[in-house]
Amino acid sequence: MRPKAKHPAVKYLLAILLATLLFPFIGLGTALAQSPIRAEVDRAVLSTDEMLTLTVTLDTSSILDSPNPLLPDLEGFQVVGSNVSTQIQIIGTDILAQAVHVYLLQPYQTGDLTIGPISVTLGGQTYSTQPVTVHVTQGAGNAPAAPAGQVPAAPAAPQPGAASQAASPEQVASPGAGFAGQDFYVEAEVDLATPYVGQQVVHTFRFYRAGGLWSQPQYQAPTFTGFWTEGQPEQHEYRVQAAGRTYDVVELRTMLFPSVMGPVTIDPAQLTIPGDFFSPDQTLQTQPVELHVQPLPPGAPTGFNGAVGRYSLSSSLDSSQGTVGEPLAWHVTLSGQGNLTAAPDPTWPEMPGWREFDNQATVQTEVRDGQMVGSRTYERLLVPTVEGESAIPALEYVYLNPQTGQYEISRTEPIPVSIAPGAASVPANPPAGGQEEAVEQAVSDIRHLKQVPAQLSMADQPVTRSTVYWAAWAVPALGALGYFTWQRRQRHRENNANLARSSQARKKARAALARARREGANAYGAAGQILITYLSDKLDRPLAGLTHQALAECLAERGVDAGLAEQAETVLVSSEMGRFAPGADDPGYAKSLLLKVGTLIDALEKVL
Amino acid sequence: MKRIALITLITLIMLALLAVNGSLLLARAATPAADAAAGAMHTANGLYESGQFGQAAQVYEQLVGQGYVDSALFYNLGNAYYKQGDPGRAIINYRQAQQLAPRDPDIKANLALARAQTVDRVEVADNGGLLTQFGEAMQSRFALDELAMAALGAWVLFVFLLLLTGTAKAGGRWRKGLQYSLVAVTVVLVVSVLALGSFLDLGSGGSEGVIVAPVVEVTSGPGAQYVTAFSLHNGAEVSLIETRGSWVRLALPGGELEGWVPGSAVEAIAGS
Fold this sequence. Notes:
The structure holds 2 protein chains of 2 kinds.
Chain A: H1 8-33, E1 37-41, E2 45-47, E3 52-60, E4 77-91, E5 94-107, E6 111-115, E7 119-122, E8 125-128, E9 132-137, E10 184-190, E11 201-209, E12 218-220, E13 227-242, E14 245-258, E15 262-266, E16 270-273, E17 282-285, E18 289-293, E19 309-317, E20 321-323, E21 328-338, E22 354-357, E23 362-368, E24 371-384, E25 388-392, E26 396-401, E27 406-411, E28 415-420, E29 457-458, H2 467-495, H3 497-519, H4 523-539, H5 548-557, H6 562-580, H7 587-607
Chain B: H1 2-26, H2 34-49, H3 53-65, E1 68-69, H4 71-83, H5 87-100, H6 105-116, H7 130-139, H8 144-167, H9 173-203, E2 208-211, E3 215-219, E4 228-233, E5 237-244, E6 247-251, E7 258-262, E8 266-268
Antiparallel strand pairs in B: 2-5, 2-8, 3-4, 5-6, 6-7
């Protein structure tokens, strides 16, 4: 017998079911195989004028020994900067660490450039990223920069109308191409058409005047978008001969520092000359000034932070001798030519054995011979923590000299300093020649970490902010107060027996009534006895002398209503009759008599 | 017989409330997530041991941010800041550790060393009143909860002995012994209540803080446009008086010098 063939639809259904069941495991496998290192770039297409940001993210559970990723040969790129940041997260019992390495790449070739796999070794296993390809186009500026080691292209020739060097105050300018002997003429130019990013550019505005002015003209400067402007414009006035006329020239020089790369246009400057009775206001406008800002040349040495100019670094200490725990002032001065206000700080060295405190840097700048010069002075307070001979480390300041197009380094010398022990410290060297040597601490350091406690407690308010705590204070006080009140009452009762007898009369009577009802025998006698005993206690009269007549008088004295007194006498008479009269022993009436006694006692209790 | 029953009842209620307060304190130690936090603290200790003080501080800070309070945690965090050259934040954490474990010699030693690294030295002419000095002496030896429970315990014992003395026969040996005990407990009660009162009084006078900026100019008003009265450096311990916007008014110990600093330049000591 042939086995029954499965229907095709059943096969499909089984396949779908199997795929559905396996799908989560496929996803899990993919997740498990996910590389802990990822690389991404901020753009896929860029020009040689732009920078590419390469971000390498490294996930690791062990942050104690997070390795650095291994970069491949970055052909076509120059690494101009890098940065590392780490993030640590505690989620439940897991500690997740992430190291983010950011590289700033400057392309110097065009076409499709590929960044090869970036690898890292974690736990003995090597992980790699996928290659990343970006397309680099020719920028609008110079030819792509050469790799490190080659001399960068020289700045292009100044554009027509722009001077290649700044004019000195004594040097006078001639009017430009648009000049035709007018009464008023304005022009603008820059001293450098192709500066580097951060290099000083002088924008010069000139106003030529051959005619008279009724009032002061109004100058409207360009916005200088794409530039860092420093200080107020510098003004010069001189006289020139042009087109057979004598002109008074007012010149305004503004110091600019380009902050963007590529072609940049400086807007026209405007000058409004107020009119007179016969002519309207006249507005003069310069031509826009075009520049092309070059990227910094490649091959920047380590420690370069973007400083452009010509700088010199100096370092001095206020004393060559110090004491442990007492601060010394370290003055570091960066001086020279460039944008000192925005110049990056020097890279401060590690200084073991010292505590460092930064102070605000002071900047002084001036324009000298058309150049921004000045100094930036840092005062750092250094507190020695270790005695002995020490030295303030040498400093380096790396900058690009725009005149030569080369990176240069200004260095300071180490400063030797002798540190004496402080008041709190002990001598490092034991006294020589002694037979006994005391064990002394050479260097003071903090005591080491504490072990992790068995359990960490959560934040809570102090116990003094708990209501229960203050309730615990109140309860003993209230308890003691209650106890002493009770004790005083007891003593009072003991000292005043009559009062005690009176106050206990009802209680005793009710107990006796309950007993009489329970026992049932001699109810008549019990009813009378209970009532007369109650009245004896209450009225503080001896039982023996409490006749019917005496009772009536006492009740009347105490202001008891005559009806109640009559009821009391009736109960007493009924009780005696029940006890002594033959045939009057009716159990039902006796019980009702007991009830009547209880009611009567309650009524008497209210008035006695 | 009734007396004994009444005294027993009152004593039992007092002991029950004392036990409730004690259990409130002990309950802090047992929290469900404490094991995970202990694991994180192990990691932070490992980072510290390997010289990664910044990352160690980051993990300790996360634990503190999650609400964990432990003298060892604050102590280790203080160490991590000290090793980074930040005596200000080290002092803050050592002082928080000291509030929880005031007799710990390690905390005391490291706090003294961190204070020695600070630049500013403040001369205090007036050490405050007798009660203030007494409170400060107590603060350096006992935690607030310790003093609170000691005072409550002395109070319960005092009331118990008072009740017992009232019931003892006049002239009897028991009564005499109880009276001597009552005098001794009264002395303990007075001292502990005074200590607790001075502790709470010191705590009610505003919080304390430490300068965490490398250096900050203290101005005469809440803004940079005011006159700079003096400068303070990292680690200077101050009293925080009030906050207006992003500016904090502070005073130096002794209260003679005071002024305003940006809020980012100073951090308060929690629980101070």
